[in-house]
């Protein structure tokens, strides 16, 4: 195995990749891993460019993540955001810790100086040494918004709200009718993304949110066709176990696009690559083994193994199973 490419969101993608890298370090340390990261959650806050999923992947792989939260830095303080609030500015629902702020300041400075997001990410990674190449899905801003459903009090039906506000401030509790990627029409896959997907021996869809992480990456012009053209095997890992999102509110996203919250339904939603979909293979949790016949019938090779990312060793075992299924 020479090249593995992972298409990741934030916490689920980051933790899976950490397990993958731990496994490869033991058995195939020369394998090149590239992580194409969702930037649909990016936004401007207090004049700074925030890239939540890129930072989660970078901090997780670089040993700088707040483990309990799954995002941000450990031993954080909030003095700067307290000062911003004292001016009556800022977003009370989105915390920017002081250490984390430094990352956003450096990134914003690079972007304002003319760097692309790919270049700024590469620069930040020189410090964090994540052990994989991190690529934003696109160098152009693509920001996921939700369209508010009718009869939501204090909000006007049909209005767009930034995904992060819906997710973090409202805990995905407001009904929405669709996800809209603002900026998509002017966006393209970042320079090294298409090659990383086409030339990979294995492409992994980790247990990331199928709608607003993997779905957003797939919407970027050039990425879906690269996946379909890839000479490697494409294997996905279910983020749904026993009919529920393991952490967070992915069920609210799936419901909005009319997909049942189950490992089988998400696998079938991605579809088999032989019929225009994304997957050659799909890993479900051992408790979802009953889903295997339907997946096989749809042309998706599948297997059932434990999929709880409890710690690095259990996550590394998932990566082993994903690679084995890709090679089967
Ligand atoms: P986000 O951008 O931080 O929301 O992270 P991702 O999109 O990468 O991943 C979020 C998804 O990870 C959630 O919707 C969960 O379904 C999934 N997830 C979290 N922990 C686990 C786990 O231990 N096992 C599995 N299979 N999925 C998980
Ligand atoms: Ca995210």
How would you describe the overall organization of this protein?
It is a single chain. This protein has 13 helices and 14 strands. The longest helix has 17 residues, at 11-27. The protein is of the alpha/beta class and 328 residues long. The protein has helices spanning 11-27, 52-62, 79-86, 98-112, 117-128, 163-169, 193-198, 214-219, 223-229, 250-256, 263-270, 292-297, 312-327, and strands spanning 3-8, 32-37, 43-45, 48-50, 133-136, 143-148, 160-162, 176-182, 202-205, 233-237, 240-241, 244-245, 281-285, 301-305. The two termini are 14 Å apart. It has two domains: 3-139 and 186-327, CofD-like domains (Rossmann fold, 3-Layer(aba) Sandwich); 143-182, no CATH class. Helix 1 (11-27) packs parallel to helix 2. The model has no long low-confidence stretch (mean pLDDT 96). Strand 1, helix 1 and strand 2 (32-37) form a beta-alpha-beta unit. The chain binds guanosine-5'-diphosphate and calcium ion. Residues 8-13, 53, 56, 207-209, 213, 238-241, 245-248, 250, 307-309 line the site of guanosine-5'-diphosphate (GDP).
